[in-house]
Amino acid sequence: MSEEAGAEVLVEHAGKSFGRIGALDDVSLHMDRGEAIAITGRSGSGKSTLLGLIGGLERPDRGKVLIDGRPVWLDRHPAQARRELVGFVFQRHLLLAALSARANVEVPLIGAGVHRAERRRRALALLEEVGLADRAEHLPSELSGGESQRVAVARALVNEPRLLLADEPTGALDSVTSERVLDLLFRLRDRLGMTLAVVSYDPDVAKRADRTLTLIDGRIGDTGEAGIAQA
Amino acid sequence: MFTIIQTNLRRRLARTLFTASGIAVGVATIVALLSFTQGLKDTAAGFVHLGGSDLGVFQANVSDPTASILPESLVARLDATPEVSRATPLLLVTEALKADPSAIVFGAQPSGFFSQGLVLLRGARPQGQEVLIGDRLAASLHLRPGGVLRVDGHPFGIAGIYHSGVLFEDSGAVLSIEDARTLTSRPGEVTDIVVELAAGTRASSAARKIERSFPGTQVITDPDQALRAGANSTLISKAILVIVVIALIVGAISVANTMAMSILERQGELGLLSTVGWSPVRVASLILGEGVAVSTLGAAGGLLLGVIGGGLLVHALGVSAYVSPAITAWGLGRGLLVGVAIGVLGGIYPAWRVTRMTPLRALSNA
Ligand SMILES: Nc1ncnc2c1ncn2[C@@H]1O[C@H](COP(=O)(O)OP(=O)(O)OP(=O)(O)O)[C@@H](O)[C@H]1O
Ligand SMILES: [Mg+2]
Asked: Which one of A99, B37, B40, B296 is separated from A165 by 20 to 30 angstroms, measured CA to CA?
């Protein structure tokens, strides 16, 4: 797919505090369309907060966050931006226990008011894509951790996002399963061309990403190309 | 969205049912009391139109219409009023039947329109020391013409059985006003005077005229007025208001509690909905919808319970002879409204809380 499928992300001098805790301080970042970056850093260094700012889950106290040149927080409600542009994957799959795998994948589309038949069609296509077509009507309790996480990936993609944000997507999985989920994420990125940011401690993620960004106490430390990290 | 609400409630079935039952009890109380007051109102309507009359003249400011006392001389003066076509006195004897203390015995002039208007189903008009009994009383006490009814201990022969369509006429008995006077030892007094108006006279204007001409009287033309004349029923309607308010508060608190608990448990889930772009309004309406669904479920159960409870209430109060609970669509509607209001009130706070949760925090707390 074309480069156009990916969003351009610009973070300018963004800062975020929670009461006395400064989570992020003067962070600037540019992501090209279709670029994949890995974000690492110690616990509490602000990785999740940065991802939240980019995806419109958190409002910056200072600075700006622009997706394709438009501020996420200014001209429309961030829920709309999330609905239209962004897909999220978290460490925990956060599937709704009462809903089947297919219904879980449909959830973002319910929020967007997409018609039932169309929701179903798109959800089934994505479950096929993540290799779970035969598990569509199973409940989360009937799926393994890795399978659940693949359903979560399908759910993140169902709104055809141009920006995919993953916060420790393999943090709860064993190494073999992690490998499969990462394969899936990067394969989908290659095929669909969306911009991708993955928070992870996993060196495998850094290897697959175009570059790695390290956060140290809410600031951006050294950035490196994937090739350099590999060497 | 409806499926999500439904599955969420089913997942916490026990909790849903407990909350719903609490609401059901509240709604049932309301419905039962409303059907009871509606029954009272129907009874009062019967009181106003005793013997098919247009209005009833009572003593002013009595606690209960049956406690009214008027001089018999008033009858002739009323009769002489141009608006009045016919007037006939009634002397009510209460608690006169041992077997059915709530039945009312009417002392009426045998020649008056009250007695003449009674349609006999069986037997004949009374002669001497005899009574006519209503068909409901006859059925409940298994009485028939030729039998004996003891009124205040005195035996009366049963001459016949009538049906008038007014609940407590049919649950009572009619004897001559002279006999009633002997029983109550109230010479020269009557309880009330029922009046048929001259053709073309409006009840309300006639009522005003009569009250002006005969100070100390109160003319009752509509059931509400009759209800107000009885202090008991005023108390009951006030009590109902209090109970409705209490049911609303208690119900809303219990729904709020249930929903608040459920949103705490589901922070991750709700944070996720918000993350995937559900608008705050939509997430809030999910919570509100769950609250309303629980309380509507409770209200539906409450309507059923209330209909049953209305009948039990009448029996418990021992007034089944003159009040039969009347279930009206509006009575049920109000029960349902209260139920839904409980859900909305109880859901508002948790729903508002949900819109204040930042998705990321919710996700990390989950
Ligand atoms: N909603 C919040 N309220 C208060 N403090 C917060 C909130 N979110 C984050 N913080 C604080 O901000 C700092 C950065 O948090 P963040 O979650 O971004 O770190 P992280 O790099 O993702 O850590 P981890 O690797 O443990 O997930 C931490 O000190 C955290 O306690
Ligand atoms: Mg984190």
From this structure: A99
